[in-house]
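subagent[fold] <- orchestrator: predict structure for attached chain, return C-alpha cells only, no commentary.
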Amino acid sequence: MKFELPKLPYGYNALEPYIDEQTMMVHHDKHHQTYADKFNASLEGHSDLKNKSAEEIIQHLNAVPEAIRTAVRNFGGGFINHNFFWPIMKNDSQQPDGEIADAIVSKFGSFEEFKELFSNSAAGLFGSGWTWLVFNGKELEVLNLPNQDSPLALGKIPLLAIDVWEHAYYLKYMNRRADYISAFMNVINWERVNELYKDAL
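subagent[fold] -> orchestrator:
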C-alpha cells in the first residue's frame, strides 16, 4: 500500500489572515508531500509494514527494522503529524465546548490558563518540533516533542497540535514564532478536538 498525500479539507486561503495562502501551499504541497514520498521510500522492500496503517507503524516503532527505523520515525512521523494537523484547524473557531471544555477546566483551571500553558510550551520549544495536547489514558497533558516525533509512539492519544517548525510560519511571521502561535489559537477546530477526546475516552 502506498501512502498518499491527503487533500486539504479547505482551500489554501481558508485560514487567512491567521495562516497565509502561500504558507499553506508550500507547507502542504511541498513539505507534506516530501514526508509522504520519503516515508514510502523508506518502506520499500518491507511489505509486512506496507500492510499496516501509518499510525500503526509509528505506534510500534520498536517493531520496525533497525535499519529503517530512523527514516520511518522521521518521515512517517512527519506524514501522520501533518495528516492530523490540517483537520484540527478551521477559520470560524470558537471556544471549546462539551467534554473537552470540561476536561480542560478540570486539568488546567480555565481555558485561559490552558492557552497560556500551551502557547508558552510552543514558544519555548527549542529548535523544530510540535506542541501537543494529548490524552495519556488518565487525563489531559501538554507536551513538546522534537522533530516529527508522534505521541502515538509514547502510547498517548493526540487531540491538538501546533507545528512549530519554521516552515509552518516563516513566510508570514518570519522569526516571530509567538505571533504565529497567537494566530494559531484563532483557527483551532474545537469541534474536531472534542470528537477526538470523546473517542479517546
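orchestrator: received. Logging for downstream: The domain at 21-88 is CATH 1.10.287.990 (Helix Hairpins). The chain has a mean pLDDT of 97.
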